[in-house]
Every structure is written in C-alpha cells, then in structure tokens.
C-alpha cells in the first residue's frame, strides 16, 4: 500500500466526516449502489488530482465500488483535509498523496507519484495533472480524462486548439448541473464561509468588490448582497458588466473600486486582477481574498515587495503594512479562500458535480473506441440523469409531458 499523508491516526475523525458528507449526497449514493452491482470500472486504474475533502472521498469510494484502483493527490497545497486523507488510506485502501501545507515541490512530487502506476483514466481540477502528463509522460496509454473546473477547461481547450491534446477529456465543469449550482451556489456560500472563518468581520454595511461576473462571481456577489454588503462588480466583458448592472450592482474599473472597497474577492481565472497599482489606492484595513483556482489573481509577490512589514495576525490572515501606513489583509496566501480557510462547497452541491464525474468516467470507459482527442461536454443524458437523481433524493416530484404535449412540441404548422 503506497501513500503519503500527514497522520494516519486522524483516520477515525476522517471517517466520520466522510459519513457526514455521504449522508447529504443522495444522487452519488444512488450511483454507488448501481456501480457496486455492475462494476463498470473493473480493472481500471484512475489517477485523480482533486481537492482532498470529505466530498471527494465520497466520489473516490464510489469509483472504488465500481471496481477501480484509485491514486489521489491534492489539487491545491492548502485544501487537503488531513483526517479525510488518512481515512481513505486506512479504511478504503486508496493511495493518497496529499497533506495540507504542501510546498510547490511536494505538490508536484505527489502528482508524479500518482502518475507512476500508469493510469488508464485521469481526473483533474485545474488541469495540473493533464499538463504534467502532456509535458513529461506523453507515452502513457490513457483512455480519457475529466476536468472539474473552468480554469482547467480553458487550459485543455488551448491544448486541443494547438493540436497537442493526447486523449479525450470530458469538461465536467460545463455540465448544467455543475456550473449552475457548484460555481454559483457552492462558491457563493463557501467563499464567504472562508472569508468569515479567517476574519469574523461584519459584512453588512461594507463595500464589497467582486472581480469577475461569471457564474462564480454572480454567486459571490448575490450572497454578499444578501448579507447586507454594498457590492461593486469589476469586469472586462461588456456583456457581463451590463448584466451585473441590470442585476442591480455597481460596475466600475478596479482603479476606482480599489479606492472604496472594504472587501475584495477575485473570481476571474486570470492573472494580476488586483495588482501593484491598486494596493496603494486601498483603504486602511482592506481585506483581499481569491476564489479563483490558482493563486495568481492577486499579485501576492508584488504586495510582499511593496510592504514595509508583514505578519500573520490570525490563521489564514496576513497583515501587510504599506509605506503610506495603510494595512492590507491577505487571506489564505491568495489561494482559494473557500478551501484553504474553510471546508469548500457544501456536500449537497458537490453531490451534483461528483455525480457528473462518476458517470463521465463510466462513459469514457464504455465509449473509449468512439472518442477523439477533443474536449467534450458532459453528454446531455448524464446531465439530465444527475438532475433527476438529485430531485429524487430530495423527495421532489415534477410533471412529465402528456402525449399530446410531446406531439405539439414536434410540430411547426400550428400558429395563433
């Protein structure tokens, strides 16, 4: 049994956490029951780079029930829940290489460790695993992979467009039952959870600046407004800026927002959204957090170089003093605040995302001979099935069309 985790003695607490998550993931548990009987992944070796949380554990345990051998590493140096990692090793026989607080070398060493057994299927969150395989292990015979998040899908689409993608990948992030719920409701709640755990500040009455108005930004902006903040949206897309304005938010450039914001949360997937030029403009006491996948959205290096001093003032909260005397507070080192300073998305919303993951892996294995070296969206039948299973698990029933309605939907001759 190969693994590298912080402390196996944490396994019992981790098991309780996993049980708690699975209690709130009825769709995935329904899929697990089916997988346990049919074993659709028997003989398949999976390498996964995902946030090692209790929800991810529920997914890994489901794939193992399907017959797969699992090798798991973390997709962020600060997001691993060490008790969960220990439980997966001790109780489930899953090869885990992850702990909270990895440095950059350890992070990539762990990715190499799960590539070494030569996986058949790869699962990723951010595309670091995909990138390492394409850069250093191009000889591997991989049937296909999945990608969990927007940032990773962007990287994979770039690979496809450049003609270097080695195997088919299903963009789980693009499923309706993923981004409409995980990105919006999941990050909307969990980013604020991380902000509050790190600072315990009152949100009501403050000016909150949200950079990016994609589904993640929309979720964060709406939740901040719901807690009493006055919200400003910063965007580079005219369409999204107009939408934010029509949704009732103020819209302005970051240079202007920097002067008035109390709380800043980035959610763009791009680099230096808050940069050196913005820090001197900010109020004394401004709080900076990132909800994008990589720690590049806030120019942390620039902030450190500009600061005359800095110190850790609370767990996950660093105080930077600028030459003008103003103090800025950076949360979770600029990494994903919802996973570094909190527990990530609630289990109920990850039930949707990880049901898509499980069914997408099964789809890849069953359709391996038909798939090309492309980035595919989740098949619509999987998307619909996940929504159905979720509603069923919540005890919700919906109508179905009558035969008359089905026929009417097919015709074109009837008018007014």
Automatic annotation (TrEMBL):
Record's keyword terms, sorted: Cytoplasm, Hydrolase, NAD, One-carbon metabolism
Domain of life: Archaea
Stretches assigned to the S-adenosyl-L-homocysteine hydrolase NAD binding domain: 183-344
EC number(s) from the headed UniProt entry: 3.13.2.1
Keyword Transferase included in the entry's annotation: no
GO CC annotation: cytosol
Molecular function in Gene Ontology: adenosylhomocysteinase activity
InterPro entries: Adenosylhomocyst_ase-like_sf (IPR042172), Adenosylhomocysteinase-like (IPR000043), Ado_hCys_hydrolase_NAD-bd (IPR015878), NAD(P)-bd_dom_sf (IPR036291), S-Ado-L-homoCys_hydrolase_CS (IPR020082)
Any Gene Ontology biological process: S-adenosylmethionine cycle
Cofactor(s) in the UniProt record: NAD(+)
Reactions mediated catalytically: S-adenosyl-L-homocysteine + H2O = L-homocysteine + adenosine
UniProt cross-references to Gene3D superfamilies, sorted A to Z: Adenosylhomocysteinase-like (3.40.50.1480), NAD(P)-binding Rossmann-like Domain (3.40.50.720)
Pathway(s) this gene product operates in, as recorded in its UniProt entry: Amino-acid biosynthesis; L-homocysteine biosynthesis; L-homocysteine from S-adenosyl-L-homocysteine: step 1/1
Residues reported to bind NAD(+): 149-151, 183, 212-219, 235, 270, 291-293, 338, 345
PROSITE patterns in the cross-refs: ADOHCYASE_1, ADOHCYASE_2
Cofactor annotation comment: Binds 1 NAD(+) per subunit.
Places the protein is found: Cytoplasm
Annotated residues for binding of substrate: 53, 125, 148, 178, 182
PANTHER family: ADENOSYLHOMOCYSTEINASE (PTHR23420:SF0)
Role description: May play a key role in the regulation of the intracellular concentration of adenosylhomocysteine.
Family: Belongs to the adenosylhomocysteinase family.
Name the record gives this protein: Adenosylhomocysteinase
Provenance organism: Candidatus Aramenus sulfurataquae
């Amino acid at each position: 049994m190969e693994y590298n985790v912080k402390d196996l003695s944490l396994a019992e607490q981790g098991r309780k956490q996993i049980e708690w998550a699975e209690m709130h993931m009825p769709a995935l548990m329904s899929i697990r029951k089916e997988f346990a009987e049919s074993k659709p992944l028997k003989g398949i070796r999976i390498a996964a780079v995902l946030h090692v949380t209790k929800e991810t554990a529920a997914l890994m345990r489901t794939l193992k029930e399907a017959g797969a051998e699992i090798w798991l590493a973390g997709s962020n140096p600060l997001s691993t829940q060490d008790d969960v990692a220990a439980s997966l090793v001790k109780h489930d026989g899953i090869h885990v290489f992850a702990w909270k607080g990895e440095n950059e070398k350890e992070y990539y060493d762990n990715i190499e460790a799960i590539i070494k057994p030569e996986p058949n299927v790869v699962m990723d969150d951010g595309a670091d695993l995909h990138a390492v395989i394409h850069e250093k292990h191009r000889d591997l015979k991989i049937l296909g992979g999945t990608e969990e998040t927007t940032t990773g899908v962007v990287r994979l689409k770039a690979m496809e467009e450049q003609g270097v993608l080695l195997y088919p990948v299903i963009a789980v992030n693009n499923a309706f039952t993923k981004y409409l719920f995980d990105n919006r409701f999941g990050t909307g709640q969990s980013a604020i959870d991380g902000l509050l755990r790190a600072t315990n500040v009152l949100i009501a009455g403050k000016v909150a600046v949200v950079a990016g108005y994609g589904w993640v930004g929309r979720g964060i902006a709406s939740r901040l407004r719901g807690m009493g903040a006055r919200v400003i949206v910063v965007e580079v897309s005219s369409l999204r800026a107009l939408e934010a304005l029509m949704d009732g938010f103020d819209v302005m450039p970051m240079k202007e927002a920097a002067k008035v914001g109390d709380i800043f949360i980035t959610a763009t997937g791009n680099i230096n959204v808050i940069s050196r030029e913005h820090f001197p403009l900010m109020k004394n006491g401004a709080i900076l957090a990132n909800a994008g996948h990589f720690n590049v959205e806030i120019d942390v290096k620039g902030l450190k170089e500009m600061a005359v001093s800095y110190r850790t003032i609370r767990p996950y909260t660093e105080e930077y003093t600028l030459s003008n005397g103003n103090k800025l507070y950076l949360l979770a080192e600029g990494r994903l605040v919802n996973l570094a300073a909190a527990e990530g998305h609630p289990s109920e919303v990850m039930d949707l995302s990880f049901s898509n993951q499980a069914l997408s892996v099964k789809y890849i294995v069953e359709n391996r001979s038909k798939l090309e070296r492309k980035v595919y969206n989740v098949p619509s039948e999987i998307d619909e099935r996940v929504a159905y299973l979720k509603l069923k698990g919540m005890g919700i029933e919906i109508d179905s069309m009558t035969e008359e309605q089905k026929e009417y939907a097919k015709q074109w001759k009837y008018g007014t």
